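[Solved] Which block belongs to which protein?

Original post:
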Amino acid sequence: MFGDVYSGKRVFITGHTGFKGSWLAAWLKMLGAELTGYALPPAYPDSHFELLKLKNQIRHIENDIRDLKPLKQAMADARPDLVFHLAAQALVRESYADPKTTFDTNVGGSVNVLESVRACDSARALVYITSDKCYRNVEWEWGYREPDVLGGDDPYSGSKGCAELVFRSYRESFFNQKPGINVGVTRAGNVIGGGDWAKDRIVPDCIRALRKKDPIVVRNPKATRPWQHVLEPLGGYLLLGARLFKSQGKFTPSEFNFGPDKTSNKTVEEVVNRIIGVWGSGQMVVHHDDHAVHEAMLLQLNCDRAWHYLKWRPTWHYDDSVEQTALWYKAHNQGADMAAYTHSQIEKYMRDWKGGDV
């Protein structure tokens, strides 16, 4: 898969202790990569990273991307062939509570990653992950395309728009002038999957309530999102990384959306009811918070560019994505070996793969 690009390659991941990063690390290990992970310690009990026992399987470094010197040294020591930058403060509501840390991490930390890659002569590919919230969201009914206007009103969205501008500046000023390396930026969002324990995210909130046999409290039941399993964008990142690595010249374009098709646009209410159905019990209650921070009601991506240049398309659609997510948490609740269960879901996804070839 991915043209066997990752087998035996040195890969450096920032944010590997997080939700998406731990899934990516597990997948890369299965593909035969030699991994170095650089991140803060896991933020939640029963973190996916710890359940996978990744600490003992990769070169694991706990540190903060806001500190340039150790990051630069770690990357120099690792001599990666490919770099995936996922480390971020990733929550909208947390960005309202602590905007400075959000900007320091998502903008300043990303500058440090780019500086470290720029100084690393071994790196041949960089995949720089931001978010669908980098776009200025006017909540129109069609998907945002890569050239659309960047920037959001809340601190998290604003920080991701800024991170995109930083990437563009480094690409044009440095990486396009540096032979032997290709860089790309990816935008995906509203990802679901097992091992996400973040606060104020609908799936973890559902699972916490279901485990306690409490009602699931929902703020905006009619809010619509394009739901996708975590393996969907990660497959896109890996495909893009492989193409960047194998390209003989400069690979263009650099910006890519990875999102589900329109049939995956469902309301929060529909998702909650689907999770309850897979779990086998539970109920939803609506609680409108008049003092809640603003969150977009509609946001979706147009992924035509990923299809045209990478032949990438979604593999698991809405039903598969929600079912596989709920089944992961159900297995965890029943005491299953979650490393083995995670690997089985990745293997199933690879068997089902429709996302393109290198």
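(Second protein starts here: sequence line, then its structure tokens.)
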Amino acid sequence: MNFLILNEGYYKNKNLFEKGYKDKIFFKKKKLIDLSHCSGSLLFGHNSQIFVKSLKKYLQKKFSIFSHPNSHANEFSKLIKKCFPGFKKIIFCNTGSEAVTKALRISSSLNKKDNIVLVSGSWHGSVGKTLYKPNKKLNAVPLSAGLDKYDQRKVIFIPYNDIVNSRKILNKNKNKINCLIIEPIQASLPIENIYQYLIFLETYCKRNNITLIFDEVITGFRTIEGSVQKKFNIKPDITILGKVLGGGLPIGLIGINNRIYSKLSKNKNKIFFGGTFSGNSMSSYIGFNTLKYLKKNKHKLQDLVRKSKFFQKDLNHFFISKNIDAKVYRFQSILRIIFSNKKIQDRVQRDFLERKKNLKIAKLRKYLFEKGIYYPSNGIIFFSTATDTKSINTLIKLIKLKSLDLKI
């Protein structure tokens, strides 16, 4: 029994995926169109040509893993710095969650302030200091058992994409805030006026000596411009990357600017970043080749955005014409169907409006699964460059049929 409890997510799930190719995943001799692609990590699809080619070459040349600095990580870091010239230093990690943990450690070392500002709706992985959600009063509520009560008292929430109320909260607490961490584009995806909000955060943090951390684990290298910060010309102090960067293997990365690097160099006690597989040669080699391929083939990413836009436009036109209470939101190739056509500003509003429709949403997800489509439980749709027009048209057709049947 203890084994089942500790292995959460496996004992409940009878559908254990076995393999994948292009935009399809397989289990028990069944084939599904994948709308997750490893939560957005597989930009070029399952077992992409660049991944297979790189892995074969890695094995043929007898490259190996070292718990020691290696040439592959060194070359990879040089390529990343070309994409992010503002990075003075790069720290490789094994996952996005680990990168968040270490980024917060960096920030904590810079001054004696120890409050962390979280932005409602952002997700920063399985990290104890950030595993909280806001209640109606924006107080921190634990998302897991076993969290440190001291950390909970040091969490301050501000509402996403709400300058007026965010400013009020920040002004009230600015003298005790160490850092502010945000996913600049959240998976809840209502992004109207988000540029103004991000500029506000950048300006406020600089004026008040608050370390600004951008968690771009999802948006890094999935955005045509390379990142949200580059698209909007915003310069956070610390950047966290992952997912697409690994090319299909686990990876996390922290990039820090010159100002933070200068402060760190003055610390008497150095920060520990070590990890056996941090910057390992396999993830670095696959990631290097993937990023190099992406830089040479930006048209593939542009085409992916075009297909995502087609999906959004077609379904939204249908929802309006049939008076269906739903809307597709999109940031480039990141998509979400929100089951309400009311104007939504953040995840809190989305969850409130969808609450009465959870049963219908579950029925839609089950229906799609039975028809050969894997619609992830978190609701975030990630197409890959391997997702073809036929798959998208099939998905659109099935969503239209079931949404009419369910009277969403």
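Accepted answer:
You had them paired correctly. Confirming on the second one: The radius of gyration is 21 Å.
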